[in-house]
## 1
Amino acid sequence: MPGSSGGSEPTFYETLGVDEEASPAEVRAAYRERAKDTHPDVSDAPDADRRFRRVKRAHDVLSDERERRRYDRLGHERYLAVEDSHGPGEADPPDPAGSGAGSTGTDHGPGARTNPAGSSDPGAGGAAGTRGARAGSTTPSGAGTERGGDRGSRRDRSGDAGGSAVGSEGSVGRVAYGLARWLKLAGALVDAWQARLGPAGAAIALATFAAYPVLLASTVTPLFPTVVNLLVGLCTFAVLGYLVVRPAVGIAVLGTWLLVLPVALTVSGVGVLSLGGLYSLTATGVPLVLCVATLAGASA
């Protein structure tokens, strides 16, 4: 039976006190229990160190799935003989039954070893290595370095070109994505504006459009007394509040005036960059932005 020793020395399973079908969790639990009794720090027995090393070795083998399969396949006595003579992980000795699994390397268990090319022939790796060494000895010492440097520089140049291409594509993609979002928002605003304006809103927008420049001019003109300027200013502020609350009407009125103002200021001789021109543009543009923000928040 796998793992049985047939001798006086207990098997790893017997050392931990588990059966041969024990799960990895059961193996770890048994190891912790045995370590509490055998560890030299807690046990006063003269052979505590040797007993603990045996418990730890049993745990190391049985908790490793590959090594456990190898232990079960070889048996306790033969596994110890292989480990003591070759060290852990070495190739298994020939099978006494004559199968040749250990010597030919056809055994694909955890103890089998393969060459880097994936062949199970133990001589293939050595032969390939010998041929490689001979070929390397006939190569001029500087040729490999030069070829390696050329290949490295070509890879660097191609990597730089690829990175630049990817970076430019990423920038274009971000710009396209941002433009698509703005177009989507503009479409939603237009739809909301058309849906909310209506016939009544259009009439109010037309009346406010005609009165708005008069209100702006009357608020700051020196032709009226200061009290009149203040009263007209309050009316202008109330109209702007109404336009912000009714963003569909406000966008129609203020948006149209923002387009017309530069032409009107230039034709009237006031000038766009004059004090009166900046006042008119500010008093129109700022409320327009508030109207757009209100409509965007309502349609989100």
## 2
Amino acid sequence: MTVCDLDEEAARVEMLQDALGCLGYHSVGTSDSEYALTWIDPERVRVLLSGIKMPGMDGLHVLAQAILRDQAMCSES
């Protein structure tokens, strides 16, 4: 399972990626909301960890967009 870690602070992204790696998870980390959304796919990322307050698209908006993408992709299958 791949986890996407999204946070505005690069140090937090790096810290969480290290922790996830120690737990045996592959992760993709970014501070870019749009880039994080490109990873939402049933074959790629099934878990999204996101900060709430971020510049541009906040975490709740990212979550809403991720759910919409996931539903659209699952209905295509």
## 3
Amino acid sequence: MTRDPEDLEKRREKINLAAEEHRQKRDEYNHLSKEWAKKRDELNEKARELIKEATKFKEMRDKYNALVKEEKVKRDEGNRKISKLTAEINRLKSDLSKKRGVNLEKMKRELRRLEKKQETMVLTREEEREVVEAISRINAEIKKEEERLELEPIIKSKMDELKKIREETELHHKKLSEYAELAQKQHDEMTRLYEEADRIRGEADKAQDEFIRIKTLADEEHKKHVDLIHQLRDYDKVLFATREKQKAKGEKGEDARQLAEEIFKRFKSGEALSTEDLLILQKSGYL
């Protein structure tokens, strides 16, 4: 490193300007990184709020799903009772009709046979007419017998019970459908909010990546700034030492001239001089 103070000053000023430039860039990057951090935090907070809201819809969905299960159990139990009671009523009707000499079950079997024949077989016009007439006749006989049987106290009681169970079962089925629809609405809203939260979290992650990138640039500028500041201190030390040396040299030269003048005055007054005095006069140009 040169010891010329003027050159040192120029070099120092150049380093100082570079250090200031890196400081400004560091501050700009730090400000920008804070903006990205703020955006990241706001996005994460928004995502948390959405998840919190979605959780409420999830709780409502689970509540309605639990009600669906309860109503399904009641509906299925009602259907089992309906099947059992219907079979019991049919047995009672069959038994009572047989006591009157009417085979209700036989008529129903014959009706099913004729209906299947009409549906599956190719019939002539005359055969088709005969089958239709037979179906109509048997239907009328079955209806008449059914109406008579339903007037029987035991059958009527069972029919009333069956009607009540059917109404209750239908009500449970209706509630089940309503709860299932409500549960689906809660689920759809929950899903929408979770998806929105995921999208916003993705934006927050991008903001975090940008924050890290900008913060890294700020750290790099800070390091460059600090390195240059250290160089400035080194230059300041060299400049101080150089100036002190020049000052000391100047002070020493002034002292030497003053001493030579005093010796020369003594010489002119006739005072005897020592060898050292003569050497000082010689170096100062008096001899």
